[in-house]
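ok here's Type II secretion system GspH family protein, seq below lol
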Amino acid sequence: MDLHQKHKKNGFTLLESLLVLSIVSIMSLVLITNIVPIHQKKVIESFLTQFEKDLMYAQQFALVNEESVYLLINANQQQYDVKSTSRSTPFFKRNYSSDIVIEGSALSNRIIYNSNGSIQKSGTIYIYYKKSTYKATFYLGKGRFKIEKL
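and the structure came out like this:
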């Protein structure tokens, strides 16, 4: 028997290994470049969803307990909290991303729900995130509000 016939090929060539490595690298690069915009979109979406839920909670608490409740925005510390007139400590504090900027035009930094669940003062709040602008409009009457992208 010939010595060369006993040896079998067990493995990949250098060219095959480099080809697979380059394909995996390109796929990883495409994935990573697509993750950043998705993450940025989810940051503002989760903030707006939580903000909306917190406003609804404040309104419902004011209505059920028949006392005024207010949401106070502290833009310098990137947080807002919900307080009641009968309690000295807030119900909760929410921190948000430093990339989010909240500007109150007519409402300044405070949203107050009366004991009947209606809002005390109508107005708008502008929310800025990166290159996106959102407008939260609060209506007199039943305390309704809407958040829309501008």
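fwiw The mean pLDDT is 84. kinda neat tbh
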